Each structure stands twice: as structure tokens, then as C-alpha cells.
Task: inverse folding
């Protein structure tokens, strides 16, 4: 059977995910010394959108940094429409989804691991434990908050490594000065390096202590995606858990056309959150990240997300 | 329309069907106990406000007192990214296991630039409070101490004024006492021996950073004297007669 074509919502999601991933790294690069004594703007944008940071810092310190109230927007969106934040915006989620795509493409393999597992409740219990500790004044959410993990790992591991690699590569080209006849590679590489040096690279190579532990945590989070699609989002992410609780009864829900369904379960194979899009009445809004993969995977166009009127016709 | 909206609101208070979010009460209790006991365990730690202070727990200027700092810091490392001298590092055990990946300053890698408040500008939870440059320049994050066994004028009768030259405060926090000392070939010479004025030193660490003794420096910063802790002090008034 030919695979159905990727549908428009999935493409829109990919565009949105890419845009926010790029935005994340753009804001990351803005956290740098601008003359005089001025950091770039937007550096804490993603943290401002993060209701877990809002909730934990309020519980633990009884104070809220001014910018954090922006995350009320995330809460309202999730309350009304579900965990779109995870599927369409979260840059860490995007990274997980990207790596999940390296898994075996065979539907049979994916089916074995795609469905809901009760271990997915771990994230809610982790969230609960973290928030209880916060209420007693101990704030450990930073260890697991997705933006904290991604920012921390980018700052201490990815960026220093990339900075070193880029600098060394262009340095090598400059030293070796390869070329054919009068045409020199440096004629191209040097202007490129100049742009990178000005806008992307660090003024001096950053070094950090304790990167082994940081890398162990980050690499585990990334490579567990090979075991289950979006492992972090399914089992660990306390922000995902929080949004799952907030969005447990959203107005936007899946609509399953049971008349055309022949239980091929291709939707489950592509499901990113383990939300059981196939089960009659068994779809789990708290697990669904609204990636629309099920909509795209269904050969009979039997699945769509639509406004769900409670008590109305299903 | 309104009635269906009300029905939707009602959903939040109804028992959920099994297919939805069904958290087990027992597991929630286990999670709660885990949270409470972690918090209690941390409160029983000897490292903490009013008990002991870690000498290497040097927080960025503007950091709130340790308990409040740990309640706010989300270990996002924005301060580490933005620090122009690379001084801010992820803590390992400086603040106990609970302070893992919170920011501490390592003066051998960098120092707190006198003209910079970037870490306080980017901190999303204001664990490092945003403050004007003038206030930051008066905020102490620690205090410098000379290791007389290693500092050149003390240990080897050599003149060295590197730390004093870099000291950024308007009136230098490092001053010299001119002392007659003996060289290995028994000549008496006069050297300048550096001393720290604890009133003026902000603990910025540029002296430790620039000290020419490459491995363990002849001058180093510890957290004592930091503005954020009224109890982590040397003396109330070091020069009271």
C-alpha cells in the first residue's frame, strides 16, 4: 500500500517547529555582550512562555519575575486547545521529534512501541514531586524543565564545541590555502568566516567545568528517542505533564470516523505522544501533542482534529 | 454556545473516564512523599543559610541569599552563556548536590567584569536581581586573600604588582606595604608586599585571574563578605580599634 501523502497541517507544523527552533538559537546567540553593557533582546523569551518556570518560582519563592506572566498565554491556549505548545513550539520537542525520525521507518517496528504505555504517567508524578518540593522552598525544576535543559546543554556543550569546530575548520583552510590555479578557497571562506565571527561565534572560546555530567544527561535525553518516539516528552518532561493536566479536556479534540477505519493502526505507528489516536473513545488528550501525524498517516482520511462541543454529537 | 462552554467547564470537575488522565492516588502520594523528603533532606544539609557557607560558592553579583536563590534558579545557564569573561560556571558540589548546575564564579577562568551586569539582565527568574551598574559596582561577591606561601613578594622576595594593577575599584582594594626582605644570595632588598582592604574589595576576582602563578594562584577569592549574606562576613568592622 502506498504511503499517504503528508498533509498540509503536518507541513505547517514542521514550518512552525523549524521557525521556533531557529528562533531559540537566534535568541541564544543574543545572550552576548553588546556595547555597552547590554545583552541582546528576547534572550529569555522561551522561559517567559514556560508556565512551569512561573509556577515553580512562585511556589518556591512566592515572587514572580515580571516577564514570566507571558506564560499565562500558554496556559490559556493549552486549556482551550490542548498541548499544541509541545507539538508546534517547544524547540526541545522539535529536537526530539527530529531524532525520533531516525528510528526504523517500518510501520511494524513503530507499531510495537507507538501505543500508550502507563509509564507515561511518570511525568505527572515527577511534576507533582517537583511542585511539592517547590512548595517547601526547594526548586529543582531546572534539572528537568525542557528549556532549561536545552539552553544549559547548548550553552555548555553544543555551542563551545561548535565554536571550536568552526574556528578550527576556517583556521585550517586559511593556513592550508587550497585552490586551483589563482582561484583560492579563502576568497570564499574568509568572508563567510567574517560573518560567522561577527554574528555567531564567541569572542573567545568558552570553557566549562563538568561537561561530562551535563553531556550524559543531554545525550541520554536525546538518544532515548531511539527507544521510544519523543521519549522525553512522553515519560519525563514535567512541563509536558503540566500542560497535559491543564489540557486534559480541550475544546479541540480528535474526531475519528469509525466508518472508514479498518484498524490498520498506521496512525498509532506515527503517533508522537503515545496518545492512542486509533482507539474508539480511547484517545488521550493529555498525551497528544497535536502533531497531526495520525491525520496524515490515515489512508482513509478517517482522523481529523476539530472543535469538540461537550455533550454534543460526537 | 454558552451552555456548551459551561458544559466544557463542568468537565474539569467531573470524574474522568479511564481513557483520559487517570492518575493513581497511591502514586501521587509516593510522588508527594518524594518531594517532601527531598526538601527535608536538603533543609537538613549543613550547607545553607545561617549554618555554614561554602568558600567556593561565589554567586554572581545581585544573587539573592542562598535559600531564595535556590528557590528561584532554574539552572538554565543563560548567565553562563552571557558572561563575557567565562567566569560563571555550572556548579558541581560547591553548593551541595542540590546546587548542581547553578552558577558559580571560577576566577581562574574569568572574573567579574567591573563594567558588566549582563548576567542580571538575562536571568529569567531574577535569581540574579537586575540592578544598575553603579549598584553592582558596590556589590561584594566575595573577598580576596593572599596566600603568603605562594605570592611572589612574600614567598620569593620578588617584586610583583600585577594584582594591584588590575584591581578595578576607584580606590584600589589592594595596597602595598614596603618591606625589607632577604634574597637567596643574602642581599637585603625592599619589595612591595600586597595586602587587601576588605572594605574596598568586591571579590571580583580579577587579581586571582591575572596572578602570574599559573596553577594555584597567590591570591584567591572566597565567598566571605558577600553582600547577599549578612552572616557570611569576616568581621562587622575589620578596622575597629
Result:
Amino acid at each position: 500500500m502506498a504511503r499517504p501523502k503528508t498533509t498540509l497541517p503536518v507541513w505547517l507544523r514542521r514550518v512552525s517547529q523549524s521557525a521556533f527552533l531557529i528562533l531559540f538559537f537566534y535568541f541564544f546567540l543574543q545572550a552576548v555582550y553588546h556595547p555597552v553593557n547590554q545583552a541582546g533582546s528576547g534572550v529569555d523569551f522561551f522561559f517567559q512562555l514556560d508556565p512551569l518556570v512561573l509556577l515553580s518560582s512562585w511556589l518556591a519563592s512566592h515572587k514572580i519575575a515580571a516577564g514570566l506572566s507571558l506564560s499565562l498565554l500558554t496556559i490559556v491556549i493549552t486549556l482551550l486547545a490542548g498541548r499544541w505548545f509541545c507539538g508546534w513550539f517547544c524547540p526541545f520537542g522539535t529536537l526530539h521529534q527530529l531524532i525520533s525520525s531516525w528510528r526504523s521507518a517500518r510501520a511494524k517496528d513503530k507499531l510495537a512501541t507507538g501505543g500508550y504505555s502507563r509509564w507515561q504517567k511518570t511525568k505527572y508524578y515527577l511534576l507533582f514531586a517537583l511542585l511539592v518540593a517547590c512548595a517547601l522552598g526547594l526548586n529543582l525544576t531546572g534539572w528537568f524543565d525542557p528549556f532549561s535543559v536545552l539552553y544549559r546543554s547548548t550553552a555548555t556543550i553544543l555551542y563551545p564545541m561548535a565554536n571550536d569546530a568552526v574556528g578550527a575548520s576556517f583556521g585550517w583552510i586559511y593556513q592550508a590555502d587550497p585552490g586551483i590555479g589563482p582561484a583560492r578557497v579563502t576568497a570564499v571562506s574568509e568572508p563567510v568566516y567574517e560573518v560567522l565571527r561577527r554574528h555567531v561565534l564567541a569572542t573567545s572560546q568558552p570553557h566549562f567545568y563538568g561537561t561530562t555530567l551535563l553531556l550524559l544527561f543531554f545525550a541520554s535525553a536525546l538518544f532515548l528517542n531511539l527507544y521510544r518516539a519523543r521519549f522525553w516528552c512522553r515519560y519525563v518532561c514535567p512541563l509536558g505533564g503540566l500542560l497535559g493536566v491543564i489540557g486534559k479536556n480541550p475544546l479541540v479534540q480528535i474526531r475519528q470516523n469509525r466508518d472508514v477505519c479498518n484498524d490498520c493502526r498506521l496512525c498509532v505507528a506515527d503517533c508522537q505522544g503515545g496518545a492512542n489516536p486509533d482507539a474508539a473513545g480511547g484517545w488521550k488528550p493529555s498525551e497528544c501533542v497535536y502533531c497531526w501525524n495520525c491525520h496524515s498517516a490515515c489512508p482513509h482520511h478517517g482522523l481529523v482534529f476539530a472543535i469538540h462541543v461537550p455533550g454534543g454529537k460526537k | 454556545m454558552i451552555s456548551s462552554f459551561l458544559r466544557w467547564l463542568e468537565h474539569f470537575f467531573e470524574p474522568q473516564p479511564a481513557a483520559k488522565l487517570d492518575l493513581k492516588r497511591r502514586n501521587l502520594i509516593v510522588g508527594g512523599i518524594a518531594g517532601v523528603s527531598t526538601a527535608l533532606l536538603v533543609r537538613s544539609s549543613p550547607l545553607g543559610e545561617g549554618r555554614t557557607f561554602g568558600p567556593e560558592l561565589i554567586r554572581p553579583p545581585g544573587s539573592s541569599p542562598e535559600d531564595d536563590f535556590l528557590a528561584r534558579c532554574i539552572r538554565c545557564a543563560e548567565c553562563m552563556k552571557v558572561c563575557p569573561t567565562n567566569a560563571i560556571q555550572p556548579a558541581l558540589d560547591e553548593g551541595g548536590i542540590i546546587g548542581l548546575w547553578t552558577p558559580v564564579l571560577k576566577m581562574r577562568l574569568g572574573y567579574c567584569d567591573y563594567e558588566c551586569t549582563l548576567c542580571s539582565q538575562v536571568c529569567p527568574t531574577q535569581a540574579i536581581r537586575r540592578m544598575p551598574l553603579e549598584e553592582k559596582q558596590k556589590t561584594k561577591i566575595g573577598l580576596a586573600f593572599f596566600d603568603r606561601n605562594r605570592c611572589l613578594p612574600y614567598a620569593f622576595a620578588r617584586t610583583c604588582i600585577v594584582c594591584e594593577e588590575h584591581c578595578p575599584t576607584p580606590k584600589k582594594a589592594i595596597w602595598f606595604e614596603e618591606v625589607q626582605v632577604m634574597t637567596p644570595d643574602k642581599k637585603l632588598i625592599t619589595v612591595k608586599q600586597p595586602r587587601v582592604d576588605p572594605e574596598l574589595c568586591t571579590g571580583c576576582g580579577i587579581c586571582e585571574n591575572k596572578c602570574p602563578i599559573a596553577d594555584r594562584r597567590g591570591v584567591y577569592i572566597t565567598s566571605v563578605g558577600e553582600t547577599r549574606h549578612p552572616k557570611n562576613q569576616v568581621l562587622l568592622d575589620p578596622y575597629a580599634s
About this structure: The radius of gyration of chain B is 25 Å. The beta strands of chain B are 88-90, 103-105, 143-146, 174-182, 188-196, 219-222. DSSP finds nine helices and six strands in chain B.
